[in-house]
């Protein structure tokens, strides 16, 4: 439940005004508060930039969780299992352990299993950078957003596909400062389509990205003139 005008949808809105307002939970909603992003295709996560405040409301302890949809063959295997009752399987084969998951009947699609990939505590409202150390060298740390993030935390997990082929990303606000409401004013997720994504989809994404960059360049040029 969010404060009026500060809905979660602001974070991904095309409107700069709404994106600037960010997300602010109602005061009676106590942490943890989860915000989950579902991507149109699996992505290789490079960086996640977060500004953990809205006005005087500040979030101080943040965690990231990621999920990767199972291959179709694995999904069919688990869907053939017997029903799960009260979270306990009636068979001897255990489900993979995830950090955030809900047990469901075999008649329903298996939900994604989330695994912890990073966490950080921040004493102030400075911007946070969660970064994948395997790709951080792609950025010029003197000029990019990486440089203006005083608080940084590595993205890691023993299952590489959780990061390199992420289908969902959850931001968990674990604690806030002095009873503040859970707040996030900006979330930027940077990455590339996963290697498993079909080429036509990659091409479509690249075309949209190129079009967006060209439009932004024209707009900025007009403003300068």
What fold name goes in the CATH topology slot of the largest domain? Jelly Rolls
| Overall geometry | globular
How far from one another are the termini?
44 Å
CATH superfamily grouping of the largest domain: Galactose-binding domain-like
Low-confidence stretches: 71-106
Q: Helical region count?
A: 4
Portion of residues within helices: 10-25%
Oligomer description: single chain
Mean pLDDT over the full residue set: 77
Question: What's the quick description here?
Answer:
It is built from four helices and twelve strands.
Give the arrangement of secondary structure elements.
Elements: H1 16-21, E1 23-24, E2 33-51, E3 53-54, E4 57-67, H2 72-79, E5 84-85, E6 88-89, E7 115-121, E8 128-131, E9 151-154, H3 161-164, E10 166-176, E11 183-184, E12 186-193, H4 199-224
Parallel strand pairs: 8-9
Antiparallel strand pairs: 1-11, 2-8, 2-10, 2-12, 3-4, 4-7, 4-10, 5-6
